[in-house]
Protein backbone atom coordinates (compact mmCIF):
# COMPACT_ATOMS: atom_id res chain seq x y z
CA UNK A 1 0.00 0.00 0.00
CA UNK A 2 1.37 3.45 -0.94
CA UNK A 3 1.53 5.39 2.26
CA UNK A 4 -0.75 8.42 2.44
CA UNK A 5 0.39 11.43 4.46
CA UNK A 6 -0.94 9.99 7.72
CA UNK A 7 -2.65 6.74 8.62
CA UNK A 8 -5.11 7.26 11.43
CA UNK A 9 -7.05 4.74 13.49
CA UNK A 10 -10.34 6.02 14.90
CA UNK A 11 -11.94 3.59 17.36
CA UNK A 12 -15.69 3.65 17.97
CA UNK A 13 -16.34 5.49 14.70
CA UNK A 14 -19.78 3.93 14.22
CA UNK A 15 -21.06 5.53 17.43
CA UNK A 16 -22.45 9.00 18.04
CA UNK A 17 -19.36 11.22 18.33
CA UNK A 18 -17.15 8.90 16.27
CA UNK A 19 -19.42 9.10 13.23
CA UNK A 20 -19.38 12.91 13.33
CA UNK A 21 -15.59 12.86 13.70
CA UNK A 22 -15.27 10.56 10.69
CA UNK A 23 -17.41 12.86 8.54
CA UNK A 24 -15.15 15.75 9.54
CA UNK A 25 -11.81 13.95 9.03
CA UNK A 26 -12.67 12.06 5.83
CA UNK A 27 -13.87 15.27 4.14
CA UNK A 28 -11.27 17.64 5.58
CA UNK A 29 -8.19 15.43 5.17
CA UNK A 30 -8.29 13.66 1.79
CA UNK A 31 -4.53 13.12 2.18
CA UNK A 32 -5.03 10.93 5.29
CA UNK A 33 -6.08 7.28 5.30
CA UNK A 34 -8.68 6.97 8.04
CA UNK A 35 -9.58 3.57 9.44
CA UNK A 36 -12.65 3.12 11.62
CA UNK A 37 -12.35 0.12 13.98
CA UNK A 38 -15.63 -0.65 15.69
CA UNK A 39 -17.15 -3.78 17.25
CA UNK A 40 -20.66 -2.62 16.29
CA UNK A 41 -22.31 -3.04 19.67
CA UNK A 42 -25.93 -1.88 20.08
CA UNK A 43 -24.53 1.71 19.95
CA UNK A 44 -22.57 1.30 16.71
CA UNK A 45 -24.43 1.76 13.46
CA UNK A 46 -22.90 1.83 9.98
CA UNK A 47 -25.96 3.74 8.75
CA UNK A 48 -24.35 6.75 10.46
CA UNK A 49 -21.53 6.59 7.91
CA UNK A 50 -23.47 6.09 4.65
CA UNK A 51 -22.30 9.40 3.16
CA UNK A 52 -18.61 8.56 3.46
CA UNK A 53 -18.56 4.76 3.18
CA UNK A 54 -17.17 4.80 -0.35
CA UNK A 55 -14.68 7.63 0.13
CA UNK A 56 -11.21 6.60 -1.14
CA UNK A 57 -9.51 7.63 2.13
CA UNK A 58 -11.91 5.71 4.42
CA UNK A 59 -11.91 2.06 5.56
CA UNK A 60 -14.13 0.23 8.02
CA UNK A 61 -12.78 -2.71 10.05
CA UNK A 62 -15.01 -4.63 12.43
CA UNK A 63 -12.78 -5.14 15.46
CA UNK A 64 -12.95 -5.40 19.23
CA UNK A 65 -10.50 -3.14 21.06
CA UNK A 66 -10.08 -5.75 23.80
CA UNK A 67 -8.62 -8.24 21.30
CA UNK A 68 -4.84 -8.11 21.05
CA UNK A 69 -4.88 -10.21 17.85
CA UNK A 70 -7.43 -8.03 16.06
CA UNK A 71 -5.81 -4.71 16.98
CA UNK A 72 -2.25 -5.96 16.27
CA UNK A 73 -3.45 -7.17 12.87
CA UNK A 74 -4.80 -3.69 12.07
CA UNK A 75 -1.54 -2.00 13.09
CA UNK A 76 0.38 -4.43 10.84
CA UNK A 77 -1.99 -3.86 7.94
CA UNK A 78 -2.17 -0.05 8.12
CA UNK A 79 0.97 1.08 10.00
CA UNK A 80 -0.88 3.82 11.90
CA UNK A 81 0.76 7.13 12.82
CA UNK A 82 -2.10 8.24 15.01
CA UNK A 83 -4.91 6.81 17.11
CA UNK A 84 -8.03 8.70 18.16
CA UNK A 85 -9.69 6.47 20.72
CA UNK A 86 -13.42 6.88 21.25
CA UNK A 87 -14.67 3.28 21.50
CA UNK A 88 -16.37 2.80 24.84
CA UNK A 89 -19.44 1.72 26.67
CA UNK A 90 -20.89 5.18 27.26
CA UNK A 91 -24.21 5.11 29.11
CA UNK A 92 -24.27 5.64 32.89
CA UNK A 93 -27.54 3.71 33.44
CA UNK A 94 -26.20 0.65 31.64
CA UNK A 95 -23.02 0.86 33.74
CA UNK A 96 -25.18 0.66 36.87
CA UNK A 97 -26.94 -2.50 35.67
CA UNK A 98 -23.91 -4.13 33.99
CA UNK A 99 -20.54 -2.72 35.15
CA UNK A 100 -18.39 -5.59 33.82
CA UNK A 101 -18.90 -4.60 30.19
CA UNK A 102 -17.55 -1.14 31.08
CA UNK A 103 -14.49 -2.53 32.81
CA UNK A 104 -13.68 -4.73 29.82
CA UNK A 105 -14.14 -2.23 27.03
CA UNK A 106 -13.20 1.03 28.73
CA UNK A 107 -10.26 -0.15 30.84
CA UNK A 108 -8.97 -3.41 29.33
CA UNK A 109 -9.70 -2.23 25.78
CA UNK A 110 -7.80 1.03 26.32
CA UNK A 111 -4.77 -0.73 27.80
CA UNK A 112 -4.81 -3.19 24.91
CA UNK A 113 -4.70 -0.30 22.42
CA UNK A 114 -1.88 1.35 24.37
CA UNK A 115 0.10 -1.91 24.40
CA UNK A 116 -0.32 -2.55 20.69
CA UNK A 117 0.55 1.06 19.75
CA UNK A 118 3.61 0.94 21.98
CA UNK A 119 4.78 -2.40 20.58
CA UNK A 120 4.20 -1.29 16.98
CA UNK A 121 5.90 2.10 17.33
CA UNK A 122 8.72 0.46 19.29
CA UNK A 123 10.15 3.70 20.70
CA UNK A 124 10.03 5.55 17.37
CA UNK A 125 7.55 8.25 18.37
CA UNK A 126 8.40 10.82 15.70
CA UNK A 127 5.09 12.01 14.17
CA UNK A 128 3.08 9.61 16.35
CA UNK A 129 0.12 10.44 18.57
CA UNK A 130 -2.32 8.51 20.80
CA UNK A 131 -5.39 10.63 21.57
CA UNK A 132 -7.73 9.42 24.31
CA UNK A 133 -11.23 10.93 24.28
CA UNK A 134 -12.75 11.14 27.74
CA UNK A 135 -15.49 12.72 29.79
CA UNK A 136 -15.89 15.42 32.43
CA UNK A 137 -17.69 12.81 34.58
CA UNK A 138 -14.28 11.63 35.87
CA UNK A 139 -14.17 14.75 38.07
CA UNK A 140 -17.28 13.76 40.03
CA UNK A 141 -20.11 16.06 41.05
CA UNK A 142 -20.11 19.82 41.68
CA UNK A 143 -22.27 21.84 44.09
CA UNK A 144 -23.93 25.11 43.07
CA UNK A 145 -20.67 26.87 42.21
CA UNK A 146 -17.26 26.16 40.69
CA UNK A 147 -15.97 24.51 37.53
CA UNK A 148 -13.91 21.46 36.61
CA UNK A 149 -10.40 22.47 35.51
CA UNK A 150 -7.65 20.19 34.23
CA UNK A 151 -6.20 20.09 37.77
CA UNK A 152 -9.46 19.14 39.55
CA UNK A 153 -8.88 15.89 41.46
CA UNK A 154 -10.59 12.84 39.98
CA UNK A 155 -13.63 11.67 41.96
CA UNK A 156 -15.69 9.37 39.70
CA UNK A 157 -18.92 8.10 41.19
CA UNK A 158 -20.56 5.77 38.64
CA UNK A 159 -19.12 2.57 37.15
CA UNK A 160 -19.03 4.42 33.80
CA UNK A 161 -17.06 7.40 35.10
CA UNK A 162 -14.82 5.16 37.24
CA UNK A 163 -13.95 3.10 34.16
CA UNK A 164 -13.19 6.24 32.13
CA UNK A 165 -11.12 7.68 35.02
CA UNK A 166 -9.16 4.46 35.20
CA UNK A 167 -8.46 4.54 31.46
CA UNK A 168 -7.36 8.21 31.70
CA UNK A 169 -4.89 7.31 34.45
CA UNK A 170 -3.51 4.43 32.39
CA UNK A 171 -3.08 6.63 29.31
CA UNK A 172 -1.10 9.14 31.40
CA UNK A 173 0.90 6.31 32.97
CA UNK A 174 2.01 5.20 29.49
CA UNK A 175 3.22 8.75 28.81
CA UNK A 176 5.22 8.96 32.05
CA UNK A 177 6.49 5.38 32.07
CA UNK A 178 7.13 4.65 28.40
CA UNK A 179 7.12 8.10 26.79
CA UNK A 180 4.14 7.20 24.58
CA UNK A 181 3.03 10.50 22.95
CA UNK A 182 -0.47 10.74 24.37
CA UNK A 183 -2.95 13.58 24.57
CA UNK A 184 -6.31 13.59 26.36
CA UNK A 185 -9.50 15.61 26.49
CA UNK A 186 -12.40 15.56 28.93
CA UNK A 187 -15.65 16.85 27.47
CA UNK A 188 -19.10 17.73 28.79
CA UNK A 189 -22.44 16.29 27.56
CA UNK A 190 -22.73 16.23 23.77
CA UNK A 191 -25.95 16.49 21.79
CA UNK A 192 -26.80 16.27 18.09
CA UNK A 193 -27.80 13.81 15.33
CA UNK A 194 -26.93 10.06 15.50
CA UNK A 195 -27.01 9.86 19.32
CA UNK A 196 -28.47 6.60 20.53
CA UNK A 197 -31.93 7.23 22.02
CA UNK A 198 -31.06 6.09 25.53
CA UNK A 199 -29.40 9.45 26.28
CA UNK A 200 -31.64 12.27 27.50
CA UNK A 201 -32.27 14.38 24.38
CA UNK A 202 -32.83 11.74 21.67
CA UNK A 203 -34.82 9.55 24.08
CA UNK A 204 -37.13 12.42 24.95
CA UNK A 205 -37.49 13.54 21.31
CA UNK A 206 -38.45 9.96 20.41
CA UNK A 207 -40.91 9.68 23.31
CA UNK A 208 -42.55 13.05 22.65
CA UNK A 209 -43.08 12.12 19.03
CA UNK A 210 -44.72 8.86 20.11
CA UNK A 211 -46.62 10.46 23.02
CA UNK A 212 -44.81 8.26 25.53
CA UNK A 213 -43.92 9.30 29.12
CA UNK A 214 -40.76 11.39 29.68
CA UNK A 215 -39.01 9.76 32.67
CA UNK A 216 -37.33 12.60 34.61
CA UNK A 217 -34.99 11.22 37.26
CA UNK A 218 -35.55 12.59 40.77
CA UNK A 219 -36.75 16.20 40.73
CA UNK A 220 -34.98 17.08 37.49
CA UNK A 221 -32.65 19.44 39.33
CA UNK A 222 -29.38 17.99 38.10
CA UNK A 223 -27.31 20.25 35.88
CA UNK A 224 -25.34 19.37 32.75
CA UNK A 225 -23.21 21.51 30.40
CA UNK A 226 -24.34 20.83 26.81
CA UNK A 227 -22.08 21.04 23.76
CA UNK A 228 -23.03 20.50 20.11
CA UNK A 229 -21.28 17.36 18.84
CA UNK A 230 -19.82 19.16 15.81
CA UNK A 231 -18.05 21.61 18.14
CA UNK A 232 -16.61 18.69 20.12
CA UNK A 233 -15.27 17.16 16.90
CA UNK A 234 -13.60 20.44 15.94
CA UNK A 235 -11.98 20.50 19.37
CA UNK A 236 -10.73 16.93 18.84
CA UNK A 237 -9.31 17.94 15.43
CA UNK A 238 -7.53 20.94 17.01
CA UNK A 239 -6.12 18.96 19.94
CA UNK A 240 -5.06 16.02 17.76
CA UNK A 241 -3.05 18.33 15.51
CA UNK A 242 -1.90 21.05 17.89
CA UNK A 243 -2.12 19.73 21.47
CA UNK A 244 1.05 19.14 23.49
CA UNK A 245 2.01 15.52 24.26
CA UNK A 246 1.22 14.54 27.83
CA UNK A 247 -1.37 17.31 28.23
CA UNK A 248 -5.08 17.19 29.01
CA UNK A 249 -7.64 19.67 27.69
CA UNK A 250 -11.13 20.25 29.10
CA UNK A 251 -13.85 20.85 26.50
CA UNK A 252 -17.24 22.35 27.33
CA UNK A 253 -20.11 24.40 25.99
CA UNK A 254 -20.32 27.02 28.74
CA UNK A 255 -24.00 26.11 28.54
CA UNK A 256 -25.42 24.82 31.82
CA UNK A 257 -29.01 23.64 32.00
CA UNK A 258 -31.02 22.21 34.85
CA UNK A 259 -32.57 19.01 33.41
CA UNK A 260 -36.16 20.09 34.01
CA UNK A 261 -35.62 23.48 32.33
CA UNK A 262 -33.99 21.82 29.35
CA UNK A 263 -36.84 19.29 29.11
CA UNK A 264 -39.47 22.07 29.23
CA UNK A 265 -37.62 23.94 26.48
CA UNK A 266 -37.47 20.76 24.39
CA UNK A 267 -41.21 20.24 24.92
CA UNK A 268 -41.89 23.76 23.59
CA UNK A 269 -39.70 23.23 20.53
CA UNK A 270 -41.39 19.88 19.86
CA UNK A 271 -44.94 21.29 20.24
CA UNK A 272 -44.01 23.91 17.71
CA UNK A 273 -42.39 21.46 15.24
CA UNK A 274 -45.18 18.90 15.52
CA UNK A 275 -47.96 21.48 15.29
CA UNK A 276 -49.28 20.49 18.72
CA UNK A 277 -50.87 22.95 21.09
CA UNK A 278 -48.50 24.58 23.57
CA UNK A 279 -48.13 22.53 26.76
CA UNK A 280 -49.15 19.20 25.19
CA UNK A 281 -45.67 17.64 25.35
CA UNK A 282 -45.06 18.88 28.91
CA UNK A 283 -47.97 16.72 30.03
CA UNK A 284 -45.80 13.70 29.24
CA UNK A 285 -43.28 14.63 31.96
CA UNK A 286 -43.22 11.87 34.59
CA UNK A 287 -40.99 12.12 37.65
CA UNK A 288 -39.45 8.71 38.36
CA UNK A 289 -37.08 7.18 40.91
CA UNK A 290 -33.70 8.95 40.82
CA UNK A 291 -30.65 7.36 39.21
CA UNK A 292 -28.44 5.70 41.86
CA UNK A 293 -25.56 8.02 42.81
CA UNK A 294 -26.83 10.67 40.36
CA UNK A 295 -24.15 13.39 39.99
CA UNK A 296 -25.73 16.79 40.72
CA UNK A 297 -23.82 19.20 38.52
CA UNK A 298 -21.15 19.16 35.82
CA UNK A 299 -19.57 22.41 34.59
CA UNK A 300 -16.39 22.81 32.59
CA UNK A 301 -13.76 25.51 32.58
CA UNK A 302 -12.55 25.28 28.98
CA UNK A 303 -10.22 28.30 29.13
CA UNK A 304 -7.03 26.26 28.59
CA UNK A 305 -8.00 24.92 25.15
CA UNK A 306 -9.20 28.39 24.15
CA UNK A 307 -6.07 30.17 25.35
CA UNK A 308 -3.49 27.63 24.16
CA UNK A 309 -5.10 26.21 21.01
CA UNK A 310 -7.74 28.78 20.05
CA UNK A 311 -10.77 26.44 20.20
CA UNK A 312 -14.15 27.61 21.44
CA UNK A 313 -17.71 26.41 20.73
CA UNK A 314 -19.42 27.97 17.70
CA UNK A 315 -22.97 26.62 17.87
CA UNK A 316 -25.37 28.59 20.03
CA UNK A 317 -27.76 26.38 21.97
CA UNK A 318 -31.15 27.34 20.45
CA UNK A 319 -29.72 26.76 16.94
CA UNK A 320 -28.08 23.47 17.93
CA UNK A 321 -31.20 22.19 19.65
CA UNK A 322 -33.44 23.08 16.73
CA UNK A 323 -31.04 21.46 14.25
CA UNK A 324 -31.01 18.34 16.44
CA UNK A 325 -34.80 18.12 16.74
CA UNK A 326 -35.17 18.64 12.97
CA UNK A 327 -32.71 15.85 12.28
CA UNK A 328 -34.52 13.29 14.47
CA UNK A 329 -37.90 14.26 13.04
CA UNK A 330 -36.60 13.98 9.47
CA UNK A 331 -34.79 10.70 10.16
CA UNK A 332 -37.66 8.78 11.73
CA UNK A 333 -36.49 5.54 10.10
CA UNK A 334 -33.12 5.81 11.85
CA UNK A 335 -34.84 6.25 15.21
CA UNK A 336 -37.30 3.43 14.54
CA UNK A 337 -34.60 1.03 13.38
CA UNK A 338 -32.29 1.57 16.35
CA UNK A 339 -35.17 1.24 18.83
CA UNK A 340 -36.70 -1.90 17.36
CA UNK A 341 -35.77 -5.59 17.39
CA UNK A 342 -32.95 -6.49 19.75
CA UNK A 343 -33.15 -3.12 21.51
CA UNK A 344 -36.84 -3.25 22.24
CA UNK A 345 -36.50 -5.57 25.22
CA UNK A 346 -33.95 -3.29 26.86
CA UNK A 347 -36.34 -0.35 26.53
CA UNK A 348 -39.26 -2.30 27.87
CA UNK A 349 -37.13 -3.41 30.85
CA UNK A 350 -36.14 0.20 31.47
CA UNK A 351 -39.70 1.45 31.42
CA UNK A 352 -41.00 -1.36 33.64
CA UNK A 353 -38.07 -0.89 36.06
CA UNK A 354 -38.70 2.82 36.53
P1 LIG B 1 -21.44 5.67 21.70
O1 LIG B 1 -21.92 4.74 22.77
O2 LIG B 1 -22.43 6.37 20.86
O3 LIG B 1 -20.45 4.90 20.72
C1 LIG B 1 -19.47 4.02 21.17
C2 LIG B 1 -18.94 3.24 19.97
O4 LIG B 1 -17.91 2.35 20.45
C3 LIG B 1 -20.00 2.36 19.27
O5 LIG B 1 -19.90 2.51 17.87
C4 LIG B 1 -19.62 0.95 19.70
O6 LIG B 1 -19.97 -0.04 18.74
C5 LIG B 1 -18.12 1.07 19.87
N1 LIG B 1 -17.57 0.05 20.79
C6 LIG B 1 -18.04 -0.27 22.03
N2 LIG B 1 -17.29 -1.27 22.54
C7 LIG B 1 -16.32 -1.56 21.63
C8 LIG B 1 -15.24 -2.49 21.60
N3 LIG B 1 -15.01 -3.34 22.61
N4 LIG B 1 -14.44 -2.50 20.51
C9 LIG B 1 -14.67 -1.65 19.46
N5 LIG B 1 -15.68 -0.77 19.44
C10 LIG B 1 -16.50 -0.73 20.51
O7 LIG B 1 -20.49 6.71 22.46
P2 LIG B 1 -20.26 8.27 22.20
O8 LIG B 1 -21.31 9.02 22.93
O9 LIG B 1 -20.04 8.49 20.76
O10 LIG B 1 -18.90 8.49 22.99
C11 LIG B 1 -17.65 8.29 22.34
C12 LIG B 1 -16.53 8.56 23.34
O11 LIG B 1 -16.63 9.90 23.82
C13 LIG B 1 -16.57 7.66 24.57
O12 LIG B 1 -15.25 7.31 24.90
C14 LIG B 1 -17.19 8.54 25.65
O13 LIG B 1 -16.73 8.16 26.93
C15 LIG B 1 -16.67 9.90 25.24
N6 LIG B 1 -17.54 11.05 25.63
C16 LIG B 1 -18.87 11.06 25.31
C17 LIG B 1 -19.64 12.16 25.66
C18 LIG B 1 -21.12 12.22 25.30
O14 LIG B 1 -21.80 13.17 25.73
N7 LIG B 1 -21.64 11.32 24.51
C19 LIG B 1 -19.07 13.24 26.35
C20 LIG B 1 -17.70 13.19 26.65
C21 LIG B 1 -16.95 12.09 26.28
P1 LIG C 1 -27.61 11.24 30.04
O1 LIG C 1 -28.03 11.72 28.69
O2 LIG C 1 -27.77 9.79 30.38
O3 LIG C 1 -26.10 11.73 30.24
P2 LIG C 1 -25.17 11.69 31.58
O4 LIG C 1 -25.80 10.85 32.61
O5 LIG C 1 -23.91 11.07 31.04
O6 LIG C 1 -25.01 13.12 31.98
O7 LIG C 1 -28.42 12.07 31.13
C1 LIG C 1 -28.38 13.50 31.18
C2 LIG C 1 -29.13 13.94 32.41
O8 LIG C 1 -30.53 13.60 32.25
C3 LIG C 1 -28.69 13.23 33.69
O9 LIG C 1 -28.76 14.14 34.77
C4 LIG C 1 -29.71 12.12 33.86
C5 LIG C 1 -30.98 12.72 33.28
N1 LIG C 1 -31.91 11.75 32.65
C6 LIG C 1 -33.25 11.73 33.04
O10 LIG C 1 -33.72 12.49 33.90
N2 LIG C 1 -34.08 10.82 32.43
C7 LIG C 1 -33.64 9.94 31.49
O11 LIG C 1 -34.43 9.11 30.97
C8 LIG C 1 -32.26 10.00 31.10
C9 LIG C 1 -31.71 9.07 30.06
C10 LIG C 1 -31.44 10.92 31.71
What does this structure look like?
By secondary structure, the chain is of the alpha/beta class. The chain has a domain of 212 residues: NAD(P)-binding Rossmann-like Domain (Rossmann fold). The protein is built from twelve helices and twelve strands. A seven-stranded parallel sheet has the order 3-2-1-4-5-6-10, with helices on both faces. It starts with 5 loop residues before the first strand and ends with a helix. Nicotinamide-adenine-dinucleotide binds next to helix 1, helix 4, strand 5 and strand 7.
Instruction: Tell me the number of strands.
Output: 12
The percentage of residues in β strands lies in 15-25%
Architecture (CATH level 2) name of the domain at 6-191 and 226-251: 3-Layer(aba) Sandwich
Report the uncertain regions. Answer: none
Helix content: 40-55%
What's the alpha carbon Rg, rounded to whole Å? 20 Å
State the helix count: 12
The ligands bound in this entry are: nicotinamide-adenine-dinucleotide, thymidine-5'-diphosphate
User: By CATH's scheme, which homologous superfamily of the domain at 6-191 and 226-251 applies?
Assistant: NAD(P)-binding Rossmann-like Domain
Mean pLDDT: 95
Termini Cα gap: 53 Å
CATH class of the domain at 6-191 and 226-251: Alpha Beta
Task: Please list the strands of the largest sheet in the order they lie side by side.
Answer: 3-2-1-4-5-6-10
The rough form would be described as: globular
Order of helices and strands: EHEEHEHHEHEEHEEHEEHEHHHH
Main sheet attributes: strand count, strand direction, barrel closure: 7 strands, parallel
Class of secondary structure makeup: alpha/beta
- At the third CATH level, what is the topology name of the domain at 6-191 and 226-251? Rossmann fold
